[in-house]
């Protein structure tokens, strides 16, 4: 089958068409004919800095498609089902004609979206959901009278995190955005207040008369760390997804802050007992999309999957100016 991968870490030009065997399904696996994919910051990070082990590495984690084969222990799906999911960082990726994935991290595709649009949701939805309900330990309907600050609100995770927080909790949401178009976007996603992370973040939040209990640090956490420590409430909670070189963790002690890493691949990497939680939350997200409670975060929809299209999507990710999500069709 055809796939797009890379043989040595480097820039986007390292991406190339490769021929590889169709995946062999394991007992709990689905074989999916990939009809849509999206590009995420993790794709760029791995391509630029992680050497393949042996054969070329195929990237891509978000996918939507049709089940063409099932493993002998699969119970939740059948051939012909339309699904969407975010994959497993320890396995070959979704930038391929066919992809094998554990059924326990797969959801049923939203019926109201086509495959390409649906592919923009899984990774960011899982990340945002786990931040709210695993890291922050919020409950649905909880958070009334409290505030969530989302730093980097116009990106893929921020766009769905704002929506989930407004739909499922009582939190007041402040989102950061620095350009007129990104500020308009986070308001469209449902943010109650917008501040500019290029300015004095702590002062702008204080001017709102709000003291966040929760901070979702989605980008440049090291740069914003002093402001986060300053503006957050005592015994507040911080969740981050990026990879800062260093943080002054002791600065969090006077306020007795809790700090959480969110990594949506953890459940699949370690085969945790609650791995099926990702299937369940993806099904909830699909239901909410179909009910109109959530909206798609896709802003850039390309043509079918080609080397040129994927390279262009990687370059746009590297620019740091992506709003929402980028998606492409399958081969």
Automatic annotation (TrEMBL):
Keywords: Acetylation, Cytoplasm, Metal-binding, NADP, Oxidoreductase, RNA-binding, Zinc. SMART domains: PKS_ER. CDD domains: AL_MDR. It comes from the Bacteria. It is found in: Cytoplasm. Residues 10-328 form the Enoyl reductase (ER) domain. Coiled coil: none annotated. SUPFAM superfamilies: GroES-like, NAD(P)-binding Rossmann-fold domains. Gene3D superfamilies: Medium-chain alcohol dehydrogenases, catalytic domain, NAD(P)-binding Rossmann-like Domain. Belongs to the zinc-containing alcohol dehydrogenase family. Quinone oxidoreductase subfamily. NCBIfam families: adh_fam_1 (TIGR02817). Homotetramer. This is Zinc-type alcohol dehydrogenase-like protein. It comes from Sulfitobacter litoralis.
